[in-house]
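Reviewer comment 2.1 asked that we show a complete input and output for one of the modelled complexes. We chose the pyridoxal-5'-phosphate case, as it is the one discussed in the main text.
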Amino acid sequence: MDSRRRVPRTDAVLADPRLAAAADRLGRGIVKAAVTGAQERARSGEIAAERVADAAVAALPATAASLRPVVNATGVLLHTNLGRAPLSAAAREAVSAAAGCTDVEFDLATGRRDRRGRGTLAALAEACPAAEAVHVVNNNAAALVLAATVLAQGREIVISRGEMVEIGDGFRLPALLASTGARLREVGTTNRTTAADYADAIGPETGFVLKVHPSNFRIEGFTAEAAVRDLTGLGVPVVADIGSGLLAPEPVLPGEPDAATVLAEGADLVTASGDKLLGGPQAGLLLGRSELVERLRRHPLARALRVDKLTLAALEASLRGPEPPTAQALHAGLASLRERAVLLAKELTGYDAVVVDSVARVGGGGAPGVELPSVAVGLPETCAVPLRRAGIVGRVESGRLLLDLRGIPADLGVTVLAARIRESLQCM
Ligand SMILES: *Cc1c(COP(=O)(O)O)cnc(C)c1O
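Response of the prediction step:
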């Protein structure tokens, strides 16, 4: 008999108790799509008609959103394509707790309206006492747009030619700043810019001087750069985009700027990302002089850039809670990485697994060129595609798939990870 005839009807498959329960949890549309896919596979002869319900159950997504969790085994700690910093368990819990109705702008004691995100702002201020005032927006790009709009619309932003950077995916900071109606006044050259270059360019048209940390490239050789402290006496605000969001010096990354140091050097305003080395959610941090932060906060554009309650919850828990996974990854000792790698390789006996030395990197989020010693489990290159399809993303190097341990959160147990790897390699 024609196999197509025997493919069960959608209603009949949806009556399967497992799929009926899934429809309550995920919504009928998602379950129906899984059933349709399974029916097609049966029609094409790929699976038996009796297996349609089982195949639909197997194809169900874990949640009602299409974003799938991924294990970042690339050795690039902050991978923009993989969602940058993973949140800590504390931050995830805080997000979940704030997801319903919450007192984000309400004082439960008095019954009155209260300042939005006050707990998060207090946590940020406490984490960086060098800042007189703080504010949080959607991301660092938004922080820069707000600063440029409020402080330099129709006026000039003085910036070094060596700091006209592209952040990624074709987005360029100069274009972003110019979109606010500010004009860029470029000074110096690609490799050398001095304090005198800035001083010469400053005049009645100047809105502010902008220092941008080259967070994803390095200029080496015959170079010169003016430090923030050399630019503070020029009579205009100095805004420093430090990129990575470190609030205090990070001993592992001595070349990476941090908000406390840059403010102590005299910067009037610092902008940074929340989801890079800070290890929190996507957010733009603004730290600096009260008068400037207050002007930014009060501008109409601030409302369009404000953050969601979920972001506020995740950021506060990342600041107050236990060390986030990104900092843990940065600080993990080589011995503990090796221990986990040896265990993982042992769990993968029979898959040609070997333990190899590796080099991890911070990634586009900061510290370009810095090599972090690491340990990886090497597997045959043919494992790369099936593992990637299962959400385990490593990197291929010299004909081998490497799963770098430094970026894999320590709370993902080696046994659980090994089981997932074996499962995804089953049908190879
Ligand atoms: C990453 C980065 C940005 C962009 O930050 P987002 O939070 O992604 O908007 C801007 N400037 C620098 C120096 C950066 O490193």
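The chain has three domains: 3-59, 71-83+327-425, 89-322. We note this here for comparison with the apo prediction described in Section 3.2.
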